[in-house]
Structures are given as structure tokens and as C-alpha cells.
Amino acid sequence: MTKHSVHVVGGPTASGKSAHALDLAAKHDGIIINADSMQIYDGLPTLTAQPPEEDKQAFPHLLYGALHPNEPCSAGNWREKVEPLITDILSQGKAPIVVGGSGLYINALLYGLSPIPDIPDEVRAATNQAYEDLGKEAFFKELQKRDPIMADRFHEDHSARIIRAWEVLEATGKSLSVWQEMPLLSPPAEWQFNVALVMPERETLYDRCNQRFVWMLEHGAIEELEAFIEAKQAGEISETALLNNALGVKPLTAYLKGDMSKETAIERGQGETRRYAKRQVTWFRHQIKENKNVAKIETIS
Question: 117, 156, 222, 258: which one has the fewest Cβ atoms less than 10 Å from its Cβ?
């Protein structure tokens, strides 16, 4: 069987993943695919640290700013989008390079997910509309009645996950828990994942987190957030959209409202970023293992 290499670059925020992905793209004639649950959304490209235009012009970048903020995207949704892209890239004789810090996305790609049928677009749209109409509390309470097993695993703030549980129940008539007990659908056997984990020393990583947050503010992140808030006030973006949880949104929103000084907002945003990076480091160290598809795991400091 001919093996096809798929490069995966993971690691914490501000670690240098994007730079490593660019190096791989130059070396292997690659196309870069996003595996970050915030960068997949349009609306806050600077604050979510999406690649700059010069990088996108140098090599193709897919699934960056690809979704409206109101569209939920679980690991399963993302995998449905990314596997056909990888197949297409390989058919072109190019190298797929999947890069991001969302561990659940990467885990779904490397090790597979439950064999849930594709969710029809109309079911997905109806589920999103129900979430908007009911609001998160009422939606979650209704899920508790209809699927108590899945509801017990989540909090009402886990919007993407509870929406996923609802749409699976609607589309299949079975709880997501039933599907999750079935054998996993593994990636294609001919795909060979070469994984690079970009994991700088803690002091270096935290310094990068701090510096990048300031850089974002110097390059339009506050103005970007103002436009995002205006879109929410106009009803164009939901208050429950996942992008509201992007790093820095809450403290910078407090600053824009006059409830917090700019200096404090920056400190809070930097602190959020460092804590998130720490959690990511722990996850990648313990969750990424070799198996029949994962042939190589390289750690880069």
C-alpha cells in the first residue's frame, strides 16, 4: 500500500506553529489547513492570531475565517470539512499541512471519531435556529429532557457540544452517546501522519504570549473588536457565538465599556493567554501517541 504523508503541527498558542508550518510548506510544496477552533471563524482575525496576508499569499491557507461566527463547529464538524480537503490536496501531488492548537480537532483527525452519519444541512440549520430562538438555558433544559445522558456530560456554556448532541439526535433518532459507543471511524489507512509538536520552554512561551497580545493591539485588534461588538448589537452576531470566548475578548470589551483600564485589560488578556497555553502544553504532552497512522512524533522546542 502506498503511504501518503500528512503533516500535523500542534502545540500551544504563540509557540511558533505557523512559522513551522510555513517552513514545511516551502520544503514539501504544501497547502496549510487550519486546526484552530477560533481561527476558523470570520470576525476577529487579528485577535485570534490568524496568519497575515503575506503568509496566505506565499502558500494556500484553508479554513481560516471560513465560517460565520454564528455557525457552531465541533471536532466532528471540523473533521467532516478537513478530510475531503486532505484527499484533494494529496490528489494534486501536494503536501497537506494541518496546523493548530485545538487538541480535540487534531485528536479527531489522528485517531478518528464515532461513525455518526453526515448531518443534513437543513437539520443543522434548524438546530442552530432553535438555539437562537430558545437561548442557551432553555435549549440546554430541553436537551436534558430529550437526551439526559449527553446533557449530563456538558454545561450549558458548551454551546458547540450541546448543539452537536441535539443535531445528532434530530438527524439519526439516536443519542450521540449511542454512536460514541460504536467502533471509531479511523482515518484512511494509507494516510501517514507526521506530527510536529512545537513546545518552547515555559519562560519563552509565556514571553511570546505577552508580546503577541500587545502586538495584536498595535495592529488593529481593538478596532476589530469594536466592529464585532457593533455587529452583535445589530443582531448580526449572536451573544452565544463561540467567538465571544476568544482570548482577550472579555477584558478588552470591559475596557471599551469603560469598566477597566487599558493596562488592566492587557494584563488580564495576557494572563488568559498564558493559562490557556499551559493547558494546551499539558494536553499535547499526554494525548498525542503513536499508532498505526501516526508514524512519527517530533517535539520542537
Answer: 258
Rounded mean pLDDT of 51-66? 96
Sign of CA dihedral 77, 79, 84, 85: positive
User: DSSP for 141-207?
Assistant: HHHHHH-HHHHTT--TT-HHHHHHHHHHHHHHSS-HHHHHTSPPBPPPTTEEEEEEEE---HHHHHH
Angle between helices 202-218 and 262-287 (to 10 degrees): 140
Q: At CA 45, angle to CA 277 and CA 85, rounded to 5? A: 85
pLDDT exceeds 90 at position 203 = yes
| Averaged pLDDT for residues 209-217 | 97
Identify the three-state secondary structure at position 293.
Answer: coil
What pLDDT, on a 0 to 100 scale, did the predictor assign at position 114? Answer: 82
Quick one: DSSP state of residue 301? -
What digits encode the pLDDT tens for the residues 250-283?
999 999 999 999 999 999 999 999 999 999 999 9
